[in-house]
Structures are given as C-alpha cells and as structure tokens.
Amino acid sequence: MHRFFIPPEWIGEEGVILGDPVAHQIRNVLRMRPGDHILVLDNSGWAREVELREVGLEQVVGEVVRRMLAQGEPRTKITLYQGVLKGRRFEFALQKGTELGIVEFVPLISDRAIIADVGDVDKRRARWKRIVQEAAEQSGRGRLPNLEPAMLFPRACERAQQQGGLGLIPWEGERGLSLRAVLAERQRKPFIVSLLVGSEGGFTAQEVELARRYGIQPVTLGPRILRAETAGLVATTAILYELGDLE
Hints:
The protein is of the alpha/beta class. It folds into two domains: 3-69, CATH 2.40.240.20; 77-242, Alpha/beta knot (3-Layer(aba) Sandwich). It is built from eight helices and twelve strands. It has helices at residues 22-29, 89-100, 118-122, 125-139, 153-163, 179-184, 205-213, 228-242; strands spanning 3-5, 15-18, 37-41, 46-55, 60-69, 77-83, 104-109, 146-147, 151-152, 166-170, 192-197, 217-219. Strands 6, 7, 8, 9, 10, 11 and 12 form a seven-stranded parallel beta sheet that branches. It has a five-stranded mixed beta sheet with strand order 1-3-4-5-2. The longest helix is centred in the middle third of the chain and has 15 residues, at 125-139.
C-alpha cells in the first residue's frame, strides 16, 4: 500500500482531500483509480487507511476506512550530526539514514568541511527535506525525521550534551574503545544517542578533544577506514542492532 505524509489540515472528520504534489503522484505517476487504497500519515503518530473516492485534475478525495498507530519507529532515538559532504554524498546519508531509523539529522560544519558558509548549506534544505520524506514513505516510517539547520561543531557538541543520553564520535584516531564496548558497558540501554560524524578528512584532534569535554565519547568502528557518508550509517546500524531495534 502506497504511503504519503500529508499536512494535518488535509484530514477532515470523515475523509481527506489531497492536493499537489500528492494528488499529481496518485493521478499521473501511480495512475490510481477510485476504490484503490492508500495510507496517509500526518506526522502525529497516527496512520489512516484511505479509500479513494474521486481522482480529479486538481485534487484527490478519499474516505478514511481505518485509523491505527503508525509503525516503523525504533525505540532508540538517534540524532546524526553528519559532516557536510561534496556532491550528493550527504543526500545519500540522509536517504539511507532515514531508511535505517534515524530520527534527526543535523548538517555539521567542522574544520575540514569544504563549504563556503552555513548559509550555503541551508540553501539545500528544501531538496534535502524532499529526500527525507520520500525515504520515510518508502521505508515504512511512522514519523518524518527532523532536519535541523546547519550547525558549527562547537554548537553541535553543546546541543548533544543538552539533549542528554549517549554521545559518540567515531574517530580513526581512537584505538582502544570500540562502539560495541561502549554500548555493552552501560547497565541501561540509552534512549537517546547523539552521533557525530565528520566530513571528508574526518575530525581534527582538537575537535575530538572538545567533544570529550562535552561528554561525547570517541570510539573506533574497527580497523578499516570508512568513507564519511558510510561511517554514520554503519554506526547507526550497529547501535540499533546492539540495542535490539532490528529484531
């Protein structure tokens, strides 16, 4: 069943009225007809199964036949502070991170990031939000991951500390403490995890030391050097597996 995140105001007491671009996709891309069923989500935690009644040129009208709690969200709430990347590598991290279950993304500006300024990153937000929404619909997410404005590294460390939970910074310079060891030594499973991943070239030693001062633990992901767009996804998968969220 096709899934669509829609604005809450499109949902009425008995039915829904869908405008573009959802109506365009239903009518022209999927070529759906009256009687077909879709699932709509308004990011409130609820999902509604809708039977299409009218598929018009300007809007699609449907009737709600079932309301249920949305599924697809992990217990562990991971925020990925992903260093901005060249080309479309950042978009890859957003798409695959959404599929895995990351609940929040923060574009991270670190010392080795190749970028003009924070404003240059934020110009891409509209496209990035579309990528996140499409990935959330495709992968069966119950809520849309939040996409924060770009953030400088010191502010990201401060925010991670304020959020509480477990802060982690994978770093190739860490030799002793593995991600698995950090997770295994905790008596209680963390509910919130902040994961800081660098741009191409990784973090500087000074940045890692600053992260330590904010209570963020450097960890190794093993003997192989991972690409910047891969490291966050590998760490996220390992965290969700170790904490039982992939069962």
